[in-house]
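hey so i finaly got around to running the thing on HPt domain-containing protein from Candidatus Phycosocius bacilliformis. pasting the sequence first so u can double check i didnt mess up the copy paste, my clipboard has been acting weird all day
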Amino acid sequence: MMDSLPLHLQGPVVDRAHLERMTGGDQDLALEVLGLFREQVELWSRLLHPSTETEDWGNAAHTVKGSARGIGAWPLAELCGLAEQASRQGPMSRDEKQGFYDAITTELQAVIGEIAVIEHHYALAGLRQA
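ok and heres what it spat out for the 3d tokens, dont ask me to read them lol
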């Protein structure tokens, strides 16, 4: 249930050290991975709408969880994991899905904002090297 969800895990919205490890420190690759994350999440987050059937909804939460883990967005991954777990316990009400949808959307907005900051940081670093 949404009442038992953590408000926010401790730590960064996106773990940059994890992202750098996953991309071998290659900024171009990191930018590509972040762009793919944005595209994938935009597509899958539509399936997290409360009107979606529970099984499909849970599958969407699972997919976003995996994508979030890939870039080090631990709070988003944790939240999607809780949503997925709830969906596996049986049919969810629209209100239950709405609660998760609202929390996931809020966290997702924070991740997208952090991605913009990371992209800006990489762009500035690229200008310094030029």
